[in-house]
Amino acid sequence: MVGCNMCGTESARPLFSAKGYDLVRCSGCDLAYVANPPDAEGLRRLYSAGETEYHAELHDPDSAASRRMAEIAARHLRFTRRFVGAGRLVDVGCSSGEFLVLAQAAGFACSGIEFSAESAQQARLRTGLEIERGTLRDTGLEAGSCDVVTLFDVIEHVPDPLGDLAAAWALLSPGGWLVLSTPNIDGLFPRASFPLAAKLGYWPHPEPPHHLFQFSQATLSAMVERAGFEVAGVHHCNIDLAYTFGTPATLARMPKRLAYAAVFAPVAKLGPLVGQGDWIYLAARKPLAS
Prior knowledge:
Elements: E1 12-18, E2 21-26, E3 32-34, H1 40-46, H2 53-57, H3 64-80, E4 87-92, H4 98-105, E5 108-114, H5 117-127, E6 131-133, E7 146-152, H6 161-171, E8 172-183, H7 188-200, E9 213-214, H8 217-226, E10 230-237, H9 241-245, H10 248-252, H11 255-270, E11 279-285
Parallel strand pairs: 4-5, 4-7, 5-6, 7-8
Antiparallel strand pairs: 1-2, 2-3, 3-9, 8-11, 10-11
């Protein structure tokens, strides 16, 4: 069992268990995390393309997953350009490179970092850019050399998010921008569906063990600030409904899951309208004097 990554508190209350992994919430700062995460080799296997049909599908630019990721990449870029429109950008967890293609076309000088060897190779082929295989911790980029560091749907996957945020801070020049996205455990849909989670053995939001951490706006902002950044903006939105609940074809074969989606998909859509989306973007700046 591990302690809290943000405040070090070792006591936590249980939330949900799936696939042998226990999601808990810190008694000190409220951060949600998997208390018994996979070891380093287990994590490596999780992010090998052959392990999941979804990530393997991203290597086909004509697949439904790739088309969906291209749409999400456009959303990433729109949020990024609310705060910064040019400069040296490194996309951490760049996957197959969909965001990098758009960011380069928008005028950013780009490179990427990707943990999956297969996805890193695909990103090199797709973008023609420099893509490092590895993590933010072992990048060859010089300290202070970047204007923007992006981590889209990455922070929830890493074993030490506070350490990775500190590494991003070191990589940025003074006044540089951190832009990230992550699921929001305090979104309207996760909170509304939680009372049924234990009874059904099903809570599609947390996704252990891939998501080692589950942030809220409050815990994400607190961790980003602890790493030295100043939060500049947050935006609430939805995780794609087909990703959360299943495609129409899948639901047609699963009546119980169809009934679940009929109840909770409208709740998920309502979330952003009341500032409680199940997915959040956050932009933060490294102070000019640091």
